[in-house]
Amino acid sequence: MDRTIEKKKWYLRPRTWMIAGGAVLLVAVYGFILGDNASRLKVRSERITISTVEKGEFLEFIQATGNVEPIRTVYLDAVEGGRVERIFVEDGQMVDAGQPILRMGNTDLILDIMFREAQMYEQSNNLRNTRLAMEQRRLDLQSNLLNLDRQISEAERELKRAETLHEKGLIPDNEYMNARDQYNYLVNTRELTIESAKQDSVFRAEQLKALEKSVDRMQANLEIVKENQENLTVRAPIAGQLSALDAEIGQTKMPGERLGQIDVLDDFKVRASIDEYWIARVEIGKNAEVTIAGEDYRLVVTKIYPQVVNGRFDVDMEFTQRTPANIRRGQTLRMRLEMSDPETAIMLPRGGFYNSTGGHWVYVIEDGSNEAVKRDIRLGRQNTQMYEVLDGLEPGDRVVTSSYDNFGDVDKLVLTD
């Protein structure tokens, strides 16, 4: 007996499901390959900062903090140690050049001066006695020569008379030879006396020079010691304001110890502390700018201190044209120290994005849309306001420059009102 076969509905057929599944898969693959799969994050526009890339004069500078100091400071150190006996000027007072500031006492120095004076007087007496001896020796020589000359004259007359008598045979040979020997003896004695006097004169002259040098040396040493005694009274080397005076009556100061300083208040300079990262680029002659009471003033680096302390080094700057009338010693100033000459460059305003990206990429708003797309960039130099753009951005591009900390790693930002 035939049985009627019931026909299955189309949606229950396996082939139908296979075709439908294949279609869905094709649609998914198509969307994956050709569709936009970028991750997105909605961000309210008023919570971000949007800056425009521009082209203009770029000036690289850094911020530096400095303190106002007197244009010149001269330090007072104790040349000779001693006990403070009197203070003539109080700290903070104005002083003139050469004005006494304080006086110290030093008993050992006074005794040393007395000892050196006694030595010099003794040596001076030796010098004077040597000169007297030389003069007495010269007079004795003259007297001896006069006496010898007289004896030689007499012996010469006696020799001539003996020669005449000997030729006539009136005196024996012995008497003639005695007269001749006596004459020769006196002549030779005179020559020896003169030679001895010359040698003695040379010796005495050398002795005299040595004594004179010794006396001069002692005199010079005594003058130095007396200068040290004068240095017990500390005087102002220049006119200015006495400050940082560190001395009390009865206090003992050692040689070389700092006593205070004198500041010249005719003008001021600024001593700034800079990060050691810039030590190779900061040079004498670099310019800086500071704003005081709404006015801009120019400065120039005049001195660089090479010592690095706690990762920083100091420089001195002076005002180039005019000094602000209302600045005071110790005042803190924030300056812009120029590190290069102005150059034309593409610039991006600074912002918090740099902390998140290191300056390697930014979100750029696409023209005519409300989406900011991630884009790789390359930055160069910087100052407190701008980054120099080397690659990846063009003038007119609008960039999200505020912090990216809350954006995660999304590819696009959707800006909403």
Distance between the termini: 77 Å
Structural class: alpha+beta
The level of helicity is 25-40%
Poorly predicted spans:
29-35
Overall body shape:
elongated
How many β strands by DSSP? 22
Number of helices: 4
| Number of structural units classed as domains | 4
Largest sheet report: 6 strands, mixed
What percent of residues are in strands?
A: 25-35%
Order of helices and strands: HEEEEEEEHHEEEEEEEEEHEEEEEE
Radius of gyration: 53 Å
Taking strands numbered 1, 2, ... along the chain, how are they ordered across the largest sheet? Answer: 1-22-18-17-21-2
Provide an overview of this structure.
With about 425 residues, the protein is α+β, with helices and mostly antiparallel strands. It folds into 4 domains: about 40-60 and about 345-415, conserved putative lor/sdh protein from methanococcus maripaludis s2 fold (Beta Barrel); about 65 and about 265-340, Efflux pump adaptor protein, beta barrel domain (Elongation Factor Tu (Ef-tu), domain 3), CATH 2.40.30; about 75-105 and about 230-255, Beta Barrel (OB fold (Dihydrolipoamide Acetyltransferase, E2P)), CATH 2.40.50.100; about 110-230. Helix content is about 35%, strand content about 35%. It has helices at about 15-35, 105-165, 175-230, 355; strands at about 40-45, 50, 55-60, 60-75, 80-85, 95, 100-105, 235, 240-245, 250-255, 260-275, 285-290, 295-305, 310-320, 330-340, 345-350, 360-365, 370-375, 380, 385-390, 400, 410-415. It has a 6-stranded mixed β-sheet, with no helix packed on it. A hairpin with a 7-residue loop joins strand 13 and strand 14. Helix 2 (about 105-165) runs antiparallel to helix 3.
